[in-house]
Design a protein that fits this description.
331 residues; 5-stranded mixed sheet; alpha/beta; 35% helix; Rossmann fold
């Protein structure tokens, strides 16, 4: 399998105060059942930045999950945002980073820390310090790729036994004056000929609710719980499994009364494609969605040519998960 670091981006202008605020409830859920507390410190009047919303959500979720896992005995996960002037950026003394206005997002923990000898490896695909079956090592590699594609920078700082801080720097977005002037000229030309500018079509709110039974298969517990709760708020009945082997057992317990399976590709014991093959032996018409950080064709070539399945590339937003489930069920 070839790791696909580059993801298709759909950048838009964002206020990170809104992004962090929207994710706060999800992060709270990721911390439920632990002794980790969340401390969110919002910067005032943040400048806009330009990045892909769903992918940047995934950046923050990955960093928060790692911070949580670094504090098995409890602690504080801190999310901070603030504006940095060019002088503030220069004061960090990061030689690779230009001195220009940036917006900073920090994800900090007071956990176990990262040993100096492995700090240079943490953004490499498949490098992980977690136990076998607890992670694939793809999370930070994707975080790095997304931040770089956004024109930003990421810098970790850590001390063993005291904790780790990941700093994400995104350039301040300044609208192009020429674009604004051109838009004004077009509006003037339209007005001169007695026409009204075409109003944007009113978007109807998407109905992402349903009543189907879903089996969600994901070895990362935090991601699985977040997806389960989100789908349940849409009306779905969700059963969860931490591996392909467990998924087969649950299907047997449920006597196959599942409408759709949503499964990660890389998992311990039994991967997603193998699970699909096993399930289709008994349930040939069962609907199936793969969720993966790999390119779709990297694993699809190992499946029978007539295999039908939906696909959701990582990173994704929780809304995108709901959309793909709805589309696959209706398809």
């Amino acid at each position: 399998l070839a790791f696909s670091r580059k993801q298709t981006m759909r950048p838009s202008v964002l206020n990170l105060t809104d992004v962090v605020g929207d994710l706060r409830m999800l992060v709270d859920r990721l911390l439920s059942g632990t002794n980790v507390k969340l401390d969110v410190q919002y910067g005032r009047d943040l400048w806009p930045v330009k990045t892909d919303l769903s992918q940047f959500e995934q950046v923050l979720i990955n960093l928060c999950v790692n911070a949580r896992d670094a504090m098995p005995d409890g602690g504080t996960l801190t999310l901070r945002t603030r504006n940095l002037t060019a002088a503030d950026v220069a004061a960090f003394n990061y030689s690779y980073m230009p001195a220009e206005d940036m917006v900073l997002v920090e994800v900090a923990d007071n956990g176990t820390g990262i040993a100096p000898e492995i700090m240079d490896k943490i953004f490499e695909p498949f490098f992980t310090t977690k136990d076998v079956g607890k992670g694939t090592g793809l999370g930070l590699a994707m975080v790095y790729g997304i931040v770089k594609q956004s024109g930003g920078y990421i810098q970790p700082e850590s001390e063993v036994g005291k904790g780790t801080t990941f700093r994400v720097f995104l350039p301040r977005h300044i609208p192009e004056p020429a674009v604004a002037a051109e838009a004004g000229a077009i509006d003037s030309a339209i007005a001169e000929v007695g026409m009204q500018p075409e109003a944007p079509a009113a978007q109807q709110p998407e109905d992402l609710t349903g009543s189907a039974v879903i089996l969600l298969v994901e070895d990362e517990e935090a991601v699985r719980r977040g997806g389960k709760r989100m789908l349940e708020t849409r009306g779905y009945t969700v059963h969860e499994a931490g591996s392909g082997v467990e998924a087969l057992s649950i299907m047997e317990e449920l006597e196959g009364k599942v409408d759709i399976v949503v499964s990660d590709v890389v998992m311990p014991e039994m991967d997603g494609p193998t699970l699909l093959g096993e399930l289709r032996k008994t349930y040939p018409d069962l609907k199936f969605i793969f969720v993966s950080g790999y390119a779709e064709d990297a694993f699809a070539r190992n499946l029978p040519p007539d295999s039908k399945f939906g696909f959701l590339p990582k990173p994704f937003s929780l809304k995108q998960l709901a959309v793909v489930v709805k589309e696959t069920l209706d398809g």
